[in-house]
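USER: For my understanding, would you kindly supply a protein sequence with its structure tokens?

ASSISTANT:
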Amino acid sequence: MAITKTDFMRGMQCRKMLWLDKHKPGLRVIPPEVQARLDAGNDFGDLAMGMFGPYEEMTVYLPGKRIPNKKAMIEKTQDALARGVPVICEAAFSNYNNYCAVDILRRTETGYDLYEVKNAPEVQEQFIRDAGFQYYIVSRCGLKIGHICIVIHGPDEENPFVPVDVTRQAKGYYRYINDNIWDLNRMQKEPEEVETAPGEHCTSPYECWYYEYCHGQRNEKSSMSLEDI
């Protein structure tokens, strides 16, 4: 694959971060509290799959691993679309090898609405860019997308999922993504380490997992695969 959704979000925060993901992932250090938030987000996403009733999930793992089999997921998604499945979760798409998996696609009279699930109390701008990347890939694959929503967690157990419509903002990122995705793809393949001076991007919008490495604390501790996120 070329650029995934995770690649794009991390590469736009810091190009060196993306390069290290591809060439020196063993330098990655994920603090326990961050891992706990990632796990909680995965659990919230799993629960949200059923927010519209029955659904079909497209997740397929490589044999004996917890790494998604992207090719199989893309094929499974195309089959579900052809059958007109009303709610598809983890729907996978690829355009020129750039890839994304959509949390929830819900069929409408004219196409599908897209839902990105986030375990957060309010919508943040990076969530909208995330959904914008998915729209870019999915629309270039020929699927008509109507509304785009960020699903945040509600105030109580009776209202656990709150969709927030961000259609205009997310679709507005199309040109921004197109202007950067090809450069990120080229950059991540460079043999020499990308040099980026430390700055605000080291902690915003998320603290970089290579913070210690870039700030002179060369920790060789390995961590989880980005495919697990």
Observations:
- The radius of gyration is 18 Å.
- The first strand starts at residue 56 and ends at 57.
